[in-house]
Amino acid sequence: MKYKFTVFTPTYNRAYTLQRVFDSLMSQTIYHSNFEWILINDGSTDNTDELVEKFISEADFDIRYIKQENKGKNYCHNKAIKLAQGELFLILDSDDAITPECMDVFWSYWMEISKENKKEIYGISCLCKNGYAGSLIGHKVEEGLIADTFMWKHKNKIYFDAWAALNTVVFKRYLFPEIENIKFIPEAYLWDKVGKNRKIYSTNEVLKIVFYQNDGFSKNIIDSYIKHSKGRYMYHKMVINDLFWELLKANPIRLLKDFIQFGRMGFHRECSVKKMMKDINSRYKVVFFIFIVFLSWFFYKTDIRSKGNV
Questions:
Q1: What are the helix and strand counts (H, E) for the chain?
Q2: pLDDT per residue over 180-215, tens digit each?
Q3: Interatomic CA distance for residues 154 and 239, integer angstroms
Q4: C-alpha torsion sign, points 228, 230, 236, 242
Q5: Taking a C-beta distance cutoff of 8 angstroms, is the pair 5, 165 a contact?
Q6: Nearby residues of 188 by Cβ (< 8 Å), 6 or more positions away
Q7: Which of 106, 157, 173, 198 sits 20 to 30 Å CA-CA off 118?
Q8: What domains are there in the chain, each with its CATH number?
């Protein structure tokens, strides 16, 4: 690999936050020749072009700027991981930042991992803090080399904003599905697939700073359910069909929620219950779904009412 790190940022009309990303990269204590920044403009209509020209003129690290029509973050991820020339892959959203020592800390952990483990390791995890409140997001977790990333995630109930330096070699083998008219699939679709039976090096370092924007997914989750129900439906379908037994063992309550969300997204897609039943790959799962589908319907109707559509 040419670099120690590839930093990937997808952006869509986020010129007003990109300066923060750039400044956090400029502040890195690692030698700047050790990383590249792949910035993918996913169809922005603001002044992103002019801003990036300024970044390129000021930066002392390599920037690869790519413009494309609006396709969604998953398409951007696929393109970036194919192009990545860093051993570790950092996904840094267009409204967030990283601490000055971030890459140095990740690299020191990476150097402690044996060559054998590096062949299949998922990556190195860390925690995040809220950039506005200054508080830790989520909770501390078990540290060290963990044998099963999927089990680690669900047993520790890591359903909050955590982060990781990903093993580029491993992630180049996995891509998000690219389906016309689906611009968003939850990142967990890929993380859960890759993490199954793989190791992760877990730390409680706080290396990413998250700034929740008023136009972001976190603050507009119901809008996301409605607008991106197809991609979310795909994710919950994958969990039910491919990861049922693992999740039942790790966190059965979470599995129940996945069944409920599967139906909820199905109703947003205007699928019939019969259609949803056909998308489940075994009879006993179908029977279970029938017993809880009324909860899916309840949450679906709550979503619609909250948007004032009835």
A1: 14, 9
A2: 889 999 999 999 999 988 999 999 999 999 999 876
A3: 12
A4: negative
A5: yes
A6: 235
A7: 157
A8: 3-210 (3.90.550.10), 221-306 (no CATH)
End-to-end Cα, the chain, rounded Å: 55
Q: List residues bridging with 39 in a β-sheet.
A: 9, 65
Tokens representing 16 are 């007003």
How many C-beta atoms surround the C-beta of residue 33 within 10 A? Answer: 12
Distance, in Å, from the CA atom of 310 to the CA atom of 300, rounded to the nearest integer, reads 12
Tell me: the pLDDT tens digits for 155-183?
Answer: 889 999 999 999 999 999 999 999 988 99
Distance CA 151, CA 132 (A): 31
Q: Is the pTM of this model over 0.90?
A: yes
Q: What token pair was written down for 53?
A: 């020209």
Strands 97-98 and 35-42: unpaired
Partner residues linked to 68 by β-bridges:
42
